[in-house]
C-alpha cells in the first residue's frame, strides 16, 4: 500500500472526477481512494481503465456506506462497487462509519476477502474501542483505519492504539479543508520556509513521519505534483514537536461520538436501513 495516495471526496461531477484521477495517475499517484457515498466510482473506474497503467501497479480503495450494513446488503454492495469501478478486485475495502450492523457487514467483507474480491479489509472513523471490539469478535483483522488527522486534530492516542494493533492509520482531511488558516499558519510557514517547501508539503511530511498514510485531494494537476514532492526532505525532531503543539484536540468537522451529530448526519440512512430490514 503506497504511503501517499489520491482522494476523490467531494468530487461528484463525474467528468471532473475522471479528469482528476487521470491526471493523478499521470502525475505518479498509484493509490486511489473512493467510496460508494462519493457517487463517483464509475468515473474513477473509467480513469483507471484508460490510464494505461497495469492494474497490478495500482492500489484502489472503496468504502461501503451504512445503508448497506447488513450481511446480505453488504454482499450486494461489494459486488456493486466492483461493477461500477469495472474491476475484478479491490485492494482495500472499508466500512465507512462505525454505525449500524457492523458485524454483519464485516462478515460479508470477510467472505469477499476469502473469495479474492478484496485483497484487504478495514474501517473508517472507528475509535480504538470500536476497533478492538471488531478485532476480538471477527476472524479477519482490520488492515486500515481511515480517520481524520491534521495539525488541528492530531489524535495521538488513537493513532498509537491503532499502530500498536498493527492497523495502519490513513488520514483523511490532512489539510482540514483549509480551516483556521492552515495554509498561512505562521508556525507551519516558518518550517516550510526552512526547507524550501510549501505549508501543504510540510503537513504531508509530518503525517508520513508519524507513520500515517495520507490521501490529499486536489483537482489541480500542479497541486497534485506538489503534494507528491514530499519524499526529498525530512522534518527534525524539534520541528515534529513544534507541529505537535498545534493540536486543538477536537474534530474540525464533527464528533463521531456525539448523539445529536450521529442523528443529524447518519440518522436517515440508519432509519431507512431499519425499515428495509423490517
From TrEMBL:
Pfam families: Aldo_ket_red. Residues 5-246 form the NADP-dependent oxidoreductase domain. Substrate binds at residue 96. Keywords: NADP, Oxidoreductase. Transmembrane segments: none annotated. The record marks 63 as: Lowers pKa of active site Tyr. The active site is at 38 (proton donor). InterPro entries: AKR (IPR020471), Aldo/ket_reductase_CS (IPR018170), NAD(P)_OxRdtase_dom_sf (IPR036812), NADP_OxRdtase_dom (IPR023210). GO terms for molecular function: oxidoreductase activity, acting on the CH-OH group of donors, NAD or NADP as acceptor. The keyword Methyltransferase does not apply. It comes from the Bacteria. Belongs to the aldo/keto reductase family. This is Organophosphate reductase. The lineage of its organism: Bacteria, Bacillati, Bacillota, Bacilli, Lactobacillales.
